[in-house]
Amino acid sequence: MNKLTDRQRMVLEYICESIQDRGYPPTLREIGLKLGIRSTNGVNDHLRALERKGYLTREDMKSRTLRPTDTTLRIVGRGASSISSTREEHELVDVETTREAEAANDDMIEIPILGRVAAGLPIEAIEHHGGDTVRIDRMLLGRGARGGDVFGLRIQGESMIEAGIHDGDYVFVRKQAQAARGTIVIAMVGDEATCKYFYPESTHIRLEPANASIAPILVPKSEWRETQILGVVVGVFRKI
C-alpha cells in the first residue's frame, strides 16, 4: 500500500474515531474544523488521495458514506474491531432512518438534478426530470444557500472549458432573474437554454463562451426579457 502523509493519517484517524464514537463518519466541514483545513476542497483532496491509496471508500456526492477499508483498520489500529463492528451495524440501518438523519444535518443541502443544458449551441434546458437529487456540503454553495433556491443541470458541450466547466460536468444554479456583468448564467435563447458568461451591452446582450474557438451569442436588447435568465452558476461537480 502507498505510504500515508502525516495529514492523511490524521484525516483517516478522525474518520475512524467518529465511526467508533458516534456510529457514522464526519462531514467534510467537520473534518475541516477538526484538522484546521479551511476549505472543503482541501478536505476533498485528502479524501481522494486516501481513496486512491486504498484506505477509504465513499459513494459519490452522498453524506456520511466515508468508510475505512480493511487495510485501514489494520493500519490505524485504534479500536479496529469496534470500528469494524460499528461499520457492519451501520450498513444494516434502515434506509429511511438514514435519510431522516441526513435530512436533519444542517451541513448538507439536497439539490434536484433537472436535466441537461448546453455549453455550446443552445439545447432544451430541461430534457427530463427523473427525480434525481444529490446531497452536498452547504459550504460549497455559499452560506446562504437553501435547497429550494438551487438546482442542478448536466453540461453538454465544451464552450465553457476555459472556465473549468467541461462536457458531462454538473453545474449548480441559484434561481434568480438578474445577474451581475461577467457572471456565469443559465440563460434562455428562444425556447432553449445555454450556459455562458453574461455581458449586457448598449444594444444587445452578449452571452460569451469560455472557449476561444466559439463565437458569442448576441441577443438584441429589444428581444431580451429579464425572465430569460434562469439563474447564476454557483458550483461545478465533476465525477472522476
TrEMBL record:
EC number: 3.4.21.88
InterPro entries: LexA (IPR006200), LexA-like (IPR039418), LexA/Signal_pep-like_sf (IPR036286), LexA_DNA-bd_dom (IPR006199), LexA_repressor (IPR050077), Peptidase_S24_LexA (IPR006197), Peptidase_S24_S26A/B/C (IPR015927), WH-like_DNA-bd_sf (IPR036388)
Site (Cleavage): 119-120
Residue intervals of the Peptidase S24/S26A/S26B/S26C domain: 112-234
Classification via Pfam families: LexA_DNA_bind, Peptidase_S24
GO BP annotations listed: DNA repair; DNA replication; negative regulation of DNA-templated transcription; proteolysis; SOS response
PANTHER family in the cross-refs: LEXA REPRESSOR, LEXA REPRESSOR-RELATED
Quaternary structure note: Homodimer.
UniProt-recorded name of the protein: LexA repressor
Upper lineage: Bacteria, Pseudomonadati, Myxococcota, Polyangia, Polyangiales
